[in-house]
Design brief:
The complex is a heterotrimer of chains A (288), B (414) and C (320).
Chain A lengths: L3 H28 L7 H19 L3 H22 L9 H23 L12 E4 L2 E4 H23 L1 H11 L1 H6 L4 H26 L6 H16 L4 H21 L3 H19 L11
Antiparallel strand pairs in A: 1-2
Helix pairs in contact in A: 1-5, 1-8, 1-9, 1-10, 2-3, 2-4, 2-8, 2-9, 3-8, 5-6, 5-8, 9-10, 9-11, 10-11
Chain B lengths: L1 H23 L15 E7 L7 H20 L8 E7 L4 H14 L4 E4 L3 H11 L5 E4 L5 H7 L5 E3 L4 H14 L6 E7 L2 H16 L3 E8 L7 H10 L3 E5 L2 H13 L6 E5 L6 H5 L7 E4 L10 H11 L9 H19 L4 H9 L3 E3 L2 E3 L17 E6 L2 E6 L15 H4 L1
Parallel strand pairs in B: 1-2, 1-3, 3-4, 4-5, 6-7, 6-8, 8-9, 9-10
Antiparallel strand pairs in B: 10-13, 11-12, 13-14
Helix pairs in contact in B: 2-12, 3-4, 4-5, 6-7, 12-13
Chain C lengths: L1 H22 L6 H24 L8 H19 L3 H23 L4 H21 L10 E2 L8 H23 L2 H11 L1 H6 L4 H27 L1 E2 L1 H5 L1 H14 L4 H21 L4 H15 L3 H7 L12 H4 L1
Antiparallel strand pairs in C: 1-2
Helix pairs in contact in C: 1-6, 2-6, 2-9, 2-11, 2-12, 3-4, 3-5, 3-9, 4-9, 6-9, 7-9, 11-12, 11-14, 12-13, 12-14
The chains are: A mainly alpha (288), B alpha/beta (414), C mainly alpha (320).
């Protein structure tokens, strides 16, 4: 039978992609409670930036990550200041529609500018063998970077002053004003950082997948699923939820007949079950 | 306050009326009289947005526009200018239905061309069959369409059907020496992959191959390592994947990552734009089935490619949809010219008798195996990437090189 | 009360509107009739989502019931040779049953959690219908013969009738105890409880009605396009389109649903025709602007006048 260890490792590496994509959303939705349906498209933009930097100027994709973070950060800030900020107090469905509008906008601009063709970096694929396990170097790098960012983010949010302020602002806006916190600034920065994280995710995606106008849509949806599983507001749980999803998809693909066809459906079934049984997710705290 | 409600309703009425007004404004024109200088209109419905199908639609569009330009430079059709109206079906059946209906009833096109998705084609043809328009279609490979519309006297079809494609693949496998025994099959779980797999299974089993792995996968997925690991464990002679360009990029890269190297890795449509750039050396030795290759010995093909590169210098490599789109418009223009009129029956007659060279190959409409009356292209070729170049390796009549089989393992290549 | 008279006036106005719509085909070509049919389909779907939305539960998984309706109709047509009328009723009924099941699990979820649950439900059904080959046809989809032999006029009148029926149902619901209860529940469930309204009961009723209508429309759609694959009826794009129309028009009123569906559909087609290549960019911009400037949708703009218009340049945060 197929090597269990190999399958497990495959699943872990798959979750790397999920982790990097979900982190930005965990910040903006999990903490700030802003619904961003355009998160996947921000990832897509990051992927395109890395692609063009590589093709036109030969920039190493890992160095491009800085550029991805920077440019998409600015795009996020613009999105926020121009639109999202205005409807922070509106019912959440307004945020759904607004960010959906952005996602349509970004997808179709990309479609016109760069066509629907999937574009991949012409870099050599490196395979690494450790014991009985065979895997791609790039995917391992994505996983490691993902976990690293998650841990850093968690640290910032729980231990540093900025992080605690962010938590405070999202929990009680009025009180935050009263103690003199510049609330609008914090929201803007938080959204910008979430966008930057999306950009980084996109750059990493570019190294292990391809980029196309539609590459962000599915990943974005996955991210919402992971957040639901994890429970909002907890970065560590997001990490674990991503792993669970990646591993379950891998196991189902291998051990269930016709598995690869069912694997995705299972993630949504998991969401449904989690919501039915324990809406606050793995985190376990009271959801609002 | 309640006045406001009535106001709304008045607005609602106005909205509906606006729909009417918009509808009435351009009065339906009578088809132009013979001998006028009125343009001849041909309508094309292709996917240009709304999903990954837009990839092919954009290629089709290039071919169509090139043909339109060349036709008009040569004086148009029957001495009248050609007006090509391209409609985007947005990858949705309802939009396709509306677009086809509009082209036929509002724009009064002489013929309807284009097409890509079998599902949308089915919906569109059902909606417009009562008009019995001239349809010369370059899309749809599903036999469902052939069964339902193939027998119609007004339906002409260019693209090979799914069974043509799969039988070519199986014939190719049969021709390999030493003859392979086991095949691992995977296919994208949409209608394209599933139907292709159905036919492949049938032909492969008839030919005596053993399919030791047979599972679908999800197109657009970020990870195929589990699938590939599973297949690797079965150790098949041949690995055959029916999927889309983006998925192939990942599958081929990840095959290298998990060190999976069957004696032959086979795909469909291996000449997608960016293949070489995306995969580099990892893309070597892959074989794929394609209805066309730019290196085929087709009369006029080289000159056509030159003209294409002049018109679209930024397009470095092209998929077969470009020459197919070009051919689609060309054959209709040719038929109308031959008929000497836009009269429907005469044009249909001209189409039935047409025998012309196109960049896609020789075009002649013949009946096909499952009920279609007018099928143009049925032959496909197998292309193998060798040293970063695509080489036609099958069938022997048009092959320009020999297939490398079995292919070297990943270690041997490095 | 004054209400009654106005209701009669309103219903009369709608009858006039639909009367006009019924005579439209005499003046316009088939293309516009197809367009109008699409509009009616979405009007009904948007009204349906509104019935549930009134209770505060926003579903982004309406495609689930749309698909259930479509497949139910297809199954009964193909394997039992049922008549279309029977199919439609069954489609609605089966959708409602599913809604009952889903509602039991999810209706106590609040806000975005409920929405995600409905989304997950639709996506799960998508995968199941894609993999189930024997009955549902799997990825190769399922086909049924067209209604009325594909004659366009009867199809048009049927869709018009369905939209009209949905409108009447919606009006009755909103003017009944259900409508009143829904509004109270949306604003504060505790208040609802204190005046003797059981939120769960009314939410489920609203959900059932919403699902029933959506299922029937799904059945109609099945016959309109004659051939479907899972993604066409269960796809996320359908759920989002319905949601967009509802919010654009004004999600809490029937008139809003009507205007939202009609205007967005017509707008989309207009853009598609005018801007051959890249029209969806315009669509995205319109959605963004609509949310920014019209917090209560088009309806809000019309009924509330200045209050319905939001000046996005006054930041809400600063105000609080």
């Amino acid at each position: 039978m197929t090597n269990f260890l190999q399958t497990t490792f495959n699943g872990i590496l798959t979750s790397g992609v999920y982790i990097v994509v979900t982190l930005g959303l965990a910040l903006v939705f999990g903490i700030m409670r802003i619904i961003n349906f355009a998160h996947g498209e921000l990832v897509m933009i990051g992927a395109y930036i890395t692609y063009w930097m590589f093709i036109l100027f030969g920039v190493n994709p890992y160095i491009s990550l800085i550029l991805d973070a920077g440019i998409v950060f600015l795009i996020g800030v613009l999105m926020h200041k121009l639109a999202i900020e205005k409807i922070l107090d509106a019912p959440s469905i307004d945020q759904v529609l607004l960010t959906f509008g952005f996602s349509v906008l970004f997808q179709n601009i990309a479609l016109i500018l760069w066509t629907a063709n999937p574009l991949a970096l012409s870099r050599e694929t490196v395979s690494v063998k450790i014991g009985n396990i065979q895997f791609g170097k790039d995917r391992l790098i994505v996983f490691i970077i993902g976990v690293a960012i998650a841990l850093i983010l968690n640290f910032i949010l729980s231990k540093t002053k900025i992080g605690k302020t962010l938590n405070a602002v999202s929990q009680n806006r009025t009180a935050s004003y009263l103690v003199g916190i510049n609330v609008p600034l914090f929201y803007t920065i938080a959204f910008g950082i979430s966008a930057a994280l999306a950009g980084i995710a996109g750059g990493l995606i570019s190294t292990v997948m391809y980029t196309s106008p539609y590459v962000g849509a599915r990943l974005g949806l996955r991210a919402f699923a992971i957040l639901t599983l994890a429970g909002l507001g907890n970065i560590n749980m997001t990490l674990i939820a991503s792993l669970i999803l990646g591993l379950s998809e891998s196991y189902i693909s291998v051990y269930v007949p016709q598995g690869p066809g069912w694997a995705e459906g299972v993630s949504f079934l998991i969401i449904l079950i989690v919501l039915a049984v324990r809406p606050s997710g793995l985190k376990g705290m009271r959801a609002e | 306050m309640k006045f406001k409600r009535i106001l709304i309703l008045i607005l609602a009425v106005s909205l509906m009326s606006a729909l009417v007004v918009w509808g009435c404004a351009p009065k339906e024109e009578k088809p132009p009289e013979e001998g006028t200088k009125e343009p001849i209109k041909i309508g094309a419905v292709i996917p240009l947005s709304g999903g990954p199908f837009a990839e092919a639609g954009q290629e089709q569009r290039i071919g169509l526009l090139m043909a339109e330009k060349e036709i008009n430079e040569k004086g148009g059709i029957l001495g009248r200018p050609l007006k090509l109206i391209i409609e985007d079906d947005q990858c949705k059946s309802e939009t396709g239905i509306a677009a086809c209906t509009k082209l036929i009833t509002q724009d009064k096109v002489v013929a309807l061309i284009g097409g890509y998705s079998s599902t949308i084609t089915f919906a569109e043809m059902n909606a417009i069959s009562s008009y019995e328009p001239i349809v010369v279609w370059m899309g749809a490979s599903s036999v469902k369409v052939e069964h339902e519309f193939g027998p119609k006297k007004w339906f002409f079809h260019l693209h090979p059907w799914d069974y043509h494609r799969q039988s070519t693949v199986v014939e190719f496998f049969k021709s390999l020496t030493p003859k392979p025994k086991t095949i691992a099959l995977t296919y994208e779980d949409g209608i394209y992959g599933t139907t292709s797999a159905d036919y492949f299974r049938k032909y492969a089993e008839e030919a005596g191959f053993e399919i030791i792995f047979d599972e679908p996968h999800k197109s657009g997925s970020s990870d195929f390592t589990s699938l590939l690991t599973k297949v690797k464990a079965k150790n098949p002679d041949i690995f055959y994947s029916v999927s889309y360009a983006g998925d192939y990029i990942i599958q081929i890269k990840q095959a290298k990552e998990v060190d999976f190297s069957p004696k032959l890795f086979t795909i469909v449509a291996p000449l997608f734009p960016g293949y070489k750039d995306s995969l580099g050396k990892a893309g070597d030795y892959i074989v794929g089935v394609n209805p066309w290759a730019s290196t085929l010995n087709i009369e006029g093909l080289k000159e056509w490619l030159d003209r294409l590169h002049e018109m679209y210098p930024e397009k470095k490599d092209i998929e077969y949809w470009v020459p197919l789109g070009y051919t689609n418009l060309m054959v209709v223009a040719e038929a109308i010219n031959k008929a000497g009129t836009t009269d429907k029956d005469k044009v249909i007659e001209a189409l039935e008798n047409i025998d012309m060279m196109t960049p896609f190959g020789r075009l002649k409409f013949e009946p096909s195996d499952e009920g279609g009356l007018h099928q143009a292209f049925t032959n496909l070729v197998m292309v193998q990437w060798q040293n970063l170049k695509p080489v036609v390796v099958f069938p022997p009549e048009v092959a320009e090189g020999k297939v490398i089989y079995p292919v070297p393992s990943w270690k041997e290549r490095d | 009360m004054m209400e009654r008279n106005n209701i009669k006036k309103i219903i009369l106005s709608w009858i006039i509107i639909f009367g006009i719509s019924a005579s439209i085909p005499l003046f316009i070509g088939s293309y516009y009739i197809h367009l109008a049919t699409s509009v009616f389909i979405y009007i009904a779907l948007t009204i349906a989502i509104g019935i549930l939305a009134k209770t505060g539960q926003v579903s982004i998984g309406q495609a689930a019931f749309f698909g259930i309706g479509a497949y139910t109709a297809a199954i009964f047509c193909k394997y039992f040779g049922s008549s279309p009328f029977v199919e439609f009723v069954l489609a609605g009924a089966v959708s409602s049953i599913f809604a009952l099941g889903l509602g039991a699990i999810t209706l106590r979820l609040k806000g975005i959690y409920f929405s995600i649950a409905t989304l997950s439900f639709a996506e799960t059904l998508l995968v199941i219908s894609n993999m189930e080959r024997k009955i549902l046809g799997g990825a190769t989809g399922i086909a049924v013969p067209p209604l009325f032999d594909n004659k366009i006029l009867p199809n048009y009148y049927l869709s018009l009738f369905l939209a009209f029926l949905t409108l009447i149902i919606a009006y009755f619901v909103s003017n009944s105890k259900i409508g009143f209860a829904s509004t109270v529940i949306r604003h504060d469930e505790r208040v609802a409880n204190s005046i003797g309204i059981n939120p769960t009961k009314y939410k489920i009723v609203a959900f059932l009605i919403s699902a029933f209508i959506t299922g029937v429309i799904g059945a109609y759609f099945m016959h309109y396009v004659t051939f479907i694959v899972p993604d066409e009826v269960f796809g996320l794009h359908i759920s989002v389109a319905i949601l967009a129309m509802a919010i654009f028009g004004g999600i809490y009123s029937v008139e809003g649903a009507f205007i939202g569906a009609a205007s967005l559909k017509i707008l989309e087609e207009y853009l598609r025709l005018k801007i051959r290549y890249g029209h969806m960019i315009g669509y995205g911009i319109i959605l963004i602007l609509a949310v920014l400037f019209m917090p209560n949708g088009v309806i809000g703009l019309l009924t509330k006048g200045r209050k319905g218009f939001r000046n996005p340049f006054k930041s809400i945060i600063k105000r609080s």
